[in-house]
Amino acid sequence: MTDEVSPGGSLAQLVRKLKNERLNRQLSIEEMSQIVNFSAAHIEKVEAGDFTFLPPLYVFSFLRKYAAELGVGDEQLLAQCRNELNAPDRPSLQYDAAAPTESDRASSHSSILPIDNWKSLAVLAVLLILAAVLLFSLAR
């Protein structure tokens, strides 16, 4: 991941625009944090050119939202920022070969119900029996 933005790069340009616009609107970092629904600490890091606090795709998504809220930047600048961050166009869903499959999970259970739920089921069964006895006695 990028530790700091280069002085002339697209990220640096966008960060300068974001910070300048926030200051022009006389918004504090805390106020901006509420507007974009992102932590003030992350805004401070972005404005300092530090993008190491989250994966690139999340940083880019934050930058895009921040820019949209302030009306800063355009699609071309954002695309260049995405490239500088090496952020993918969309998240990839990777299959973990070590993850158990449905058949692995099904064969690993000795019963249909998890053991953790047997106490809840026992309580429910007792309550149903008591309700049946009560209804039977009221019906007489």
Task: Describe, in short, the structure shown.
The protein is mainly α. Helices cover 61% and strands 0% of the residues.
What does this structure look like?
The protein is built from seven helices and no strands. By secondary structure, it is mainly α. The chain has a domain at 10-85: lambda repressor-like DNA-binding domains (434 Repressor (Amino-terminal Domain), Orthogonal Bundle). α1 (10-24) packs across α4 (56-70). The N and C termini lie far apart (77 Å).
Notable traits:
140 residues, mainly alpha, 434 Repressor (Amino-terminal Domain), 7 helices, elongated, disordered N terminus
Number of strands: 0
Q: What does the radius of gyration come to?
A: 27 Å
What's the CATH first level of one domain?
Mainly Alpha
Tell me the CATH superfamily of one domain.
lambda repressor-like DNA-binding domains
N→C terminal distance:
77 Å
Q: Could you tell me the CATH topology label of one domain.
A: 434 Repressor (Amino-terminal Domain)
Count of individual helical segments? 7
List the helices and strands and how they pair.
Layout: H1 10-24, H2 29-36, H3 40-47, H4 56-70, H5 75-85, H6 102-108, H7 118-139
Helix pairs in contact: 1-4, 4-5
